[in-house]
Amino acid sequence: MFKDRFALISFILNKFLKAMQPKFHKVLTPPSNSINVVKNRRHHFLNPFHYHPEMEISLILKSSGFRFVGDSVESFEAGDLIFIGSDIPHCWRNDLASITNPDHEAEILTVHFPKAFIGDTFYNLPESSAIDIFLKKSKQGIKVIGKTRVEITEMLLVLEEQDGMNRIITLLSILDRLSKCREILPLASAGFVNRYSEAESDRINTVFLHVINNLSGKITLQEVASLTNLSETAFCRYFKSKTGKRFSNFLNEVRIGYACKILISSNRSITEIAYESGYNSLANFLIQFKSIMKLTPRQYQLQYKNASFV
After folding, report:
1. pTM of the full predicted structure?
2. Model pLDDT for residues 119-141, shown as the tens digit of each residue
3. In degrees rounded to 5, what are phi and psi of residue 137?
4. At what angle do helices 297-306 and 247-265 cross, to 10 degrees?
5. Which of 82, 86, 129, 242 is deepest in the core (most CB within 10 A)?
């Protein structure tokens, strides 16, 4: 039964992927506004790996899964606050358990704005130099954490209800607060460059979906290469040139990200989690987990439980 359902979901998602529009995303901002604020609520996240010239602030209100920003692959959960710079490929993807759960809900509040929403000369002012520096840092994508995350979340909820000049003033206050805080983490590597064309984004999306839909099973280089109509050798070169990392490293990052999600949301044993994450060897799982997270699974679990959330 599960295998049939799994195959059906994979088939539907892959059909959807082939029908998607080009991955350069046009942000539709009303003519009367320079800032676009949208709250999207749906069963699960559907957007492909896409990019746009506008800056983006995304607040996850409901759901969890995997976040792709440039060459960064991490798990996400409700409350995550991400700042995306101009032209960085990104997307959020739910795992199969969420997609097949009829009661699952995904909700995200997104703010899009051009860097010049208040004029190009604004960033030449000495008072705005810190904001200009922050926006340059955002070319890697930024995760906002700690008390700053809580403060910015509250400001975003206010901004959602505003319009006109009040919305511009609140956005400036958000950027000012972000430019002065230390509670930010870069996502993509410092050397990341957007190397994706629209056709190449289709290929990368196909690979991402296949990995996420088959996390618990065996994923071979041969089958992934065949999805992109490339030989194994050509696929390895292609994937490294487009993502900056080997496919095997990418696969391990996604699987360990999934394992982290299970570690903090269930009481299952480490062995069970290892196998559910696609590892047939507990020893290999432990090696990969320590290499990527710099902690053992148990240490990660305890650190999360002992963390002080504000």
Report:
1. 0.65
2. 888 999 999 999 999 999 998 99
3. -65, -30
4. 50
5. 82
